[in-house]
Amino acid sequence: MADWLAALDRRAELRAKAGLTRTLRPRAAGDAVVDLAGNDYLGLATHPEVTAAAGRALSAYGLGATGSRLVRGSTDAHHALEDDLARWLGVDRALVFSSGYLANLAAVRGLVQPRTLLVSDAHNHASLIDGCRISGVETIVTPHADVDAVAAALAAAPGRPAVVVTESVFSVDGDLAPLAALHAVARRHGALLLVDDAHALGVTGPAGAGGVAAAGLAGEPDVVVTATLSKALGGAGGVVAGPAEFVRHLVETGRTFIFDTAPPPAVVAGVRAALRLARSGDDLRAELAERAALVVRRLGGAGLEVSAPDAAVVSVTAPGPEAATAWAADCRDRGVAVGCFRPPSTPDSRSRLRLTLSAGVDRADFERALDVIVDCAAVSARSEPGLRAPQSRTEDGS
Ligand SMILES: Cc1ncc(COP(=O)(O)O)c(C=O)c1O
Fold it and tell me: Where in this chain does the record put each Aminotransferase class I/classII large domain (predicted)?
């Protein structure tokens, strides 16, 4: 075997020894699993209005955008979605990207000047971390959701431009950032606040407008919002939203906008239809909140360690990476897909199952899935001494 391939094999062996092998599992169209692993929070990915809108644009424009918007031209579908996003988020202007990852890279990089200090939460998503890295400026990583640490970092850099970088709903445990407090601290120090609303858009805030809107910060001139269009909106793509001058700056200088093929018009049109449904989806959001509380009652009641039910993401602690893998595999064998998060996909050394809730999953299937997760924890506990066996069902069956 060539040297470089042998070196890769050795690294794969090390990952395997640490229980951190990643493998691709098959997924069939319309498979019958109960999906607690995807991010289709409102069940809009398959909504007939969404797929019909995408189908019409597919017929009109074809499969792909065929180029970046600056080179190939900017379709009505892209502009219409951006106008709707800007109105929904309460900002001047929005710009779509072909993924949330690329939107975050552009947003962070677009906000920095040579002397800028970035202050980034320790639990931030990889795309924000990479945005800080490619920006090439000093980055201080502050302990998770620690407003005092953010204040101290800003106070230690008087007179320097600074950006506080955070998610609103953190992607691994679903907990909320203290956005109002972070904004107050940022403003006191003349810093900007960049918020990734990926897991909040459509799920929290007035008319589902996300965590920034929920914190009363929509349209603030020192706040920039990013989000993915691939979770509650059920499609693909990302958005950066904020002051018109900043969006113009990204159109003219954002490398992941300029040098990337635009998101396909069909997806953009589908996402726009999803946005209309998400805005009026208070009933879906109420259902999600009920389900999150039910997870905590059922799994917490069975003695499992569960994160706070703040949004549509709830994590359940596993004793280690191998136990997490076995637990998730057992669930899958019984028809329930759950996320299995192990280092380095976790912000700390703790492995978890991550349950992402969807109002689109049948309620009875969802409740049965919770029983499966508890049962499988018991099975895994027998083969893995570190995993605490759950207690029996609570009396009210929740
Ligand atoms: C918090 C957060 N930001 C950004 C992204 C990236 O979005 P996309 O999948 O559209 O690239 C994700 C995950 O998908 C995420 O969880």
Answer: 33-373
Q: How far is the CA of 228 from the centre of ligand 1 (A)?
A: 6
* Under 8 Å between Cβ of 357 and 202: no
Atom of ligand 1 nearest to the CA of 102: 11
Let me know how many helices (H) and strands (E) the chain has, helices first. Answer: 16, 11
Assess contact for 275 and 84: CB atoms under 8 A: yes
Model pLDDT for residues 186-218, shown as the tens digit of each residue: 999 999 999 999 999 999 999 999 999 999 999
Q: How many angstroms separate the alpha carbon of residue 232 from the centre of ligand 1?
A: 12
The two beta strands, 336-341 and 351-356, are antiparallel
pLDDT of residue 345: 84
- Mean pLDDT, consecutive 10-residue stretches, the chain (398 aa), reads 96 92 86 93 98 98 97 97 98 98 98 97 97 98 98 97 98 96 98 98 98 98 98 98 98 98 98 98 98 96 94 95 94 96 88 97 97 89 53 31
Q: Output the pLDDT for position 124.
A: 97
pLDDT recorded at residue 32 = 78
Q: Which of 155, 212, 219, 215 is nearest to 188 (CA)?
A: 155
Burial 185-224, CB ≥16 within 10 A → b, else e: bbeebebbbbbbbbbbbbbbbeebbbbbbbbebbbbebbb
b/e string for 341-372 if b means 16 or more Cβ within 10 A?
A: bbeebbbeebbbbbbbbbbbbeeeebeebbeb
100: CA distance to ligand 1 center in Å? Answer: 5
Give the pLDDT score at 395.
28
Distance 68 CA to ligand 1 centre (A): 21
Tokens of 241: 């939203």
Domains contained in the chain, CATH given:
49-280 (3.40.640.10), 282-381 (3.90.1150.10)
Tokens of 215: 């914190």
CB of 167 shorter than 6 A to ligand 1:
yes
**Nearest ligand 1 atom to alpha carbon 127:** 4
- The three-class DSSP label of residue 69 is helix
